[in-house]
Structure formats: C-alpha cells, structure tokens
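FW: tagging you since you asked about this chain on Friday. Here's the raw sequence from the shared folder, copied in full. Didn't touch anything.
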Amino acid sequence: MKIKTSRLRYLFFSKNFIMMLVALVVIIVAVSAWFVGRVDAEAQGISVRTSNSGIDIAPCVKTYNSDYTKVLTDGPGEFKNGLRFPDDLTDEQKNFLGSKLSLSKDCTGDGMALIVPDFNVTNDYERVRETTGKEVNPNIIGNEAVSQEQARIKKLQNPEKDTVEYQYLQFEFYVRSKEPELYLRADSQLLAETESNGSIFTEITDKDNPQKSAYGNFNVDGLVGAMRVSFVAEACNAVEQNWIPENDTSRLDYTNTVRSPSVRQLLWVPRPDVKLNIPAEKGNITDWSLSKQPSGDAYQNAYYSYYKNKEDKSGLQLISNSTDSKAVVSPYVETGHPSLGDNINISDFSSLQSFVRNTVTLPIKDNNSLTDMYYLTKITMNIWIEGTDSEARRAMDGGKFNLILTFSGK
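HL: got it, structure written out here
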C-alpha cells in the first residue's frame, strides 16, 4: 500500500534543505574571503638600476631539458646598467603573463618560503567579511605559494592544462661588481601609481572614479600598504660564458654558473605608513577609510612561516613582530614617501660556514679573448601581497604600484 507523505514531513525536509543550502553558501563565501578574496594589483613598472660604473646587471638566462623538469644551465645574459620588468623578460615569459604584471592572490611568508595557508571554516560570515578575515589553521602546513615563473614552467610541462594560478612575482637576475659587498640603496622605493602626481590619502567621492573602493571613499592604490619585497642571493664562484660574433654585434651562445646555497638577504616592508581603518560597528562595510599611520606607532611586521623543522609537518607559526636583522621596515617620514632608509648589504654570506667568496672571470661581450674580474651575485627578488595585513583586503581591488630599486657599492 502506498503511504502518503504528510505535509509536516514535506515542511521538515524543505526546512532542512534550505538550512543546508544556507550553510553551504556561508561556507563557500567564507572560503573565498581570506584577507582579500580576489584582488588585482598591477605593477606599472619594476626597475632595477645601478648608481655607479663598477656595477652591472644582467637578466638570468636558463635552459631546460625537453620536458621542463630540470634546469640545465643558469647564467647571466648581457650586462647593462639596469633592467626593467616586464620589458626585459623573454618573449615567452611576456606571452605567458599577457599585457601586464599583476597579482590576483595574496600569500604569506618570511621572504624565502612563501605559503598559502589552510583555514578554519567559520559560520560567522559578518566577522569574516568585516573585521578579521579568514582564520588561519596553524596546525596544517598549507601549500607552497607559486610564482609566475613557476606557473609558466608548469604550463610548459602540461600544455593542455588550464592556466596555472600564481600568488607572487619572482624575478631572477645577476649583478657583477668590483667589490664583494653589494648594497640596495637607501632611496629604493615602492610607490602607488597615484603617487606619481598625487596622494593615496586623498578622499575619493566620485563613484565613477575607477580608483575609488567600494568599501569607502578611499583609493584602492592603498594596497601598497600590504606589499612585501624580499631578496635572496647566491654567490657565484665559477662562470662560463661564450659569445658568438654575429654581424656587427655578438650573440650569447652559452652561459652557466656554479653558485653557493641561497641566503635570504632582506625581507622588506616598504609602506608601513598606509593604514586601512575598518569601523568597529557590525554591518558597516561602506564606510572604511585610508589614513597615514602616525609616525609614533610601532609597525608590527607579521607573517606566517614554517617551524624551523619543516619536515615534521608541525604546521605554521605566526611571527607577530619580527626582530630578525634581515627584516627591514621603511622608516616613517613626515613629508614625501617612505624609502628603504639605509643602504642594505644584500651580499652577506657569513651564515655559510667555511664559505669563501671568489672573483670570477667574465668575457667582454664583443670579444671573448678579452676578460675582466668581478664578484658575481645571483639575485632572486620576490614581490607579494602579505595576507596578514588589513590593506590586503578586497577593498583594495585594482591597486597599481611602481617599484624602483638601485644597487651600489659601499
């Protein structure tokens, strides 16, 4: 005999189904709302230059095996007095990136190991949306963040795969110098595009202005407050480079180096002056503001990192205020924009026990029989949006920045 389902039973199932849908929506929204959710930060220009004739910079030139699973050679290209990214990337690298250098996700880390953490799922969507962002689960080690160059290689390894997502920008280059010490100069800066002819702290009330945040009358270029830059160096104690004459110039035939283990030289917070203010009252998501952080306030340089023994998979630790000598915060200034503040040695290999740095012999581009002696350093520069900063929130979608770096001797 067919038993009819009662109306109350229908209501029970309907009610539970609706509750399940609501819970699912809350979970999906929470999972997509870590500090930023989705942003689009675009690098208008990243320039690396030298301040004296004894220092030159060359792009990193690599070759790979046929399936792109192994680097065969890694050495300097043509040396000149500066590089500009993306202009000085290879055609293949530029094709992968498209028309611009951009960051659409944030990550966290100590400048050498960058991490996409795992998160606790929360039911309190308002808390996620307005104040704290998603809560990092420190008991899970998370995933290693991916650079745009790593994403490009993964795409070459598997051309049929959809475009690989990346969380940070990474640029490799070589610097040759007559002195063993190589410094990043004090006037190096990270600036918002707006700051080329205005201030990011100026209130924006025009709703049609693309720089206006949907969360308040402030400039999305304030995203520079969450930017981080790090430098990792390798000393080169042997180099092989050969140029082939071609017409009136020469073509690079082969380049490769023997290098020391990599050493983190600098974790830099370039814009501690930028502060995103989020009102305490619940439900207010359109009255946020951007202000200049008072010079007397102590900036907390926070990030998540692996524990010292990463292999035990013990999770992540929050560094709430790094005291590492390699972690530098730009000093506050009353007028103008913050810069690095001091000349920073980015060729310090004293942590490598029994390591002796030697000069190498490099050929002159247009005449392989002529050589000169230099100290040669490979630099890896990483740029990312630090997810622990409030300025990394979705409120900053669309920010644009410029990074201007200068290398010098003593």
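FW: The CA atoms of residues 34 and 143 lie 15 Å apart.
HL: agreed, and The chain has a mean pLDDT of 85.
FW: great, closing this out.
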